[in-house]
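Hello Y.,

Per our agreement to keep a running log of every chain we model this quarter, I'm adding this entry. I've kept the format consistent with earlier entries: sequence first, then predicted structure.
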Amino acid sequence: MSDIRELELDGVYEIVPKKHGDDRGFFSETYNSRVLAASGIDLAFCQDNQSYSRERGVLRGLHYQLPPFAQDKLVRVLRGAIYDVVVDIRRGSPTFGSWTGLEVSAERWNQLLVPKGFAHGFVTLRPDTEVFYKVTAFYAPDHDRSIRYDDPAIGINWPVEAECVVLSQKDAAAPLLAEADIGFTYESGR
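Predicted structure for the entry above:
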């Protein structure tokens, strides 16, 4: 059984799977749809993604896909550590533009569930970090969008010095939230 706790934003969860160890090593069930469904999280994942970052300070995000290809994501770290951030981009939401962040690491053995309607990004806290995540919709390049990681209207407090941040060209050119193509509307009771 996993420990599951909702974070500050509606529908965003930290999940910590149980780890069973002995002198040989350990075993852990890192994903179980029945366990999540029993906690009210009923998702059908269709694609797994993995990224590797050589350096500390590699920042990927803030990313999302527009409907009808919006993705829920279940993120975990296989090696190293990240600071993982989620931003509410559902127009009309009482927390629109708000963010929450969490260290996700191989040592902490935790995961972050990012629901549809939220932008997602992370920065590596250690070199040689590998991130693995499951998504509920296939990658759709025509629906892929991003928001500036340093948008002052959002005000994310990234735990890496600005001069250490390593960005892709796509992320460096991302628009501010006020200029972004959003496509999500808040539905209470979701």
